[in-house]
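COMPLEX REQUEST
Ligand: PXG
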Amino acid sequence: MNMITNHMPTAELQALDAAHHMHPFTAQGELAEKGARVITGAKGSWLRDSEGNDILDGMAGLWCVNIGYGREELAEVAARQIRELPYYNTFFQTTHVPAIALAAKLAELAPGDLNHVFFAGSGSEANDTNIRLVRTYWDMKGKPDKKVIISRHNAYHGSSVGSGSLGGMSYMHAQGGMPIPDIHHIGQPHWYAEGGNMTPEDFGLMRAQELETAIKELGENRVAAFIAEPIQGAGGVIIPPASYWPEIQRICDKYEILLIADEVICGFGRTGNWFGSETLNIRPDVMTIAKGLSSGYVPIGGSIVTDEVAKVIGSGEFNHGYTYSGHPVAAAIALENLRILEEEKIVDTVRTETAPYLKAKWESLADHPLVGEAVISGMMGSIALSPDKANRAAFASPAGTVGYICRERSFANNLIMRHVNDRMVISPPLVISKADIDTLITRARIALDECLEQLKAQDLFKAA
Ligand code: PXG
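STATUS: Structure written out below.
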């Protein structure tokens, strides 16, 4: 076969892709007909495709390229580390400098006494670690019945069998024999879609109290942990009512329940603080990290645990680990990424300058006839599309029909926005400039206008 390069015609690349490459979360047959978009390069907040289009990346890849694309320093660190020590494992009483340095740095950055890191290759792997970690913790404390992990409907915690079971996506559970035993799901704090006539505060409280009800029903002696994203990401950027997290924290404190904050999206500056747990005032026992940890330049994830959890786990042997736990190249790149985030004060700039600037503009989209609400925290935002704003109504068409149309209009205008059912979401690189924020908003508004026009033409602008 000839060498495959960026210089080949798009159609040839698409044909080869369709012939051999299986895409995640994709109807392969449908994509083969249409042809995948081919990305050939990227710089800052911008992608370049094989047709020469410059596309504003409103999603930072998949919620991960926090420092933006094309940072030379990370390439240099990678090359240096590969020359010095491309691989060694951290099993069998062995360690190396990149893993030591990254763990120490994370202990410094993470709040409270979250001082110990177990490395994984991704968010899914880290949450699989967490399932075994919290259950082993209670075993070692002499409470082996504490096995159940409570999560939430419409949560996303990964796509492996374990992490996918923690997640609350029923369309995922429908394939491949999930969830695994002893995972229990309660309602999500999604006031806009599910709050009915309640106030957001009352609804938030009610959803949090479902945790207490579940603990009582399951039996306190059987519940090991509660896991949640501080702000749901893949579920549609659902920002919980202010009453929600304090009540969850109270319940976890009252009963002997470990709190796992899944910071895979919220971590590393996304909400304007280093961790979403700080923005929402949560005190987790375990934090899941990935994505922004390396700004997506290489795969790496992990679990950060408190002194107490580490002490208990350390009292015996934890029979768990991955070939790439603490991979030296990934760890060195992550460390350099954290250096850039810190020294360039990127998280501070998000909190004090660019996020407030984006917030004002994003929330102004709520005046659009198609927008039921526009919400944002730091650099993660969403808008609900609605045919009847006053009543927060859903569309008559199957969920996702309208969101997909809006996403297509956004792509056609060279802005990457994602849709979750009929919610549009953004999560741009943290380094996005004010000028690029202006472009994002302009293009989002054009996409909304064009979407509305199409809905009207196709008689889809109507409530269920
Ligand atoms: N936890 C959270 C909160 C996530 O958002 C994972 C765990 C799993 O991480 P890995 O690295 O195993 O993918 C995620 C991942 C989407 C989308 O469509 C979101 C994710 C992954 C893929 C797609 O929004 N989040």
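REMARKS: The chain has a mean pLDDT of 97. Residues 261 and 297 are 23 Å apart (CA to CA).
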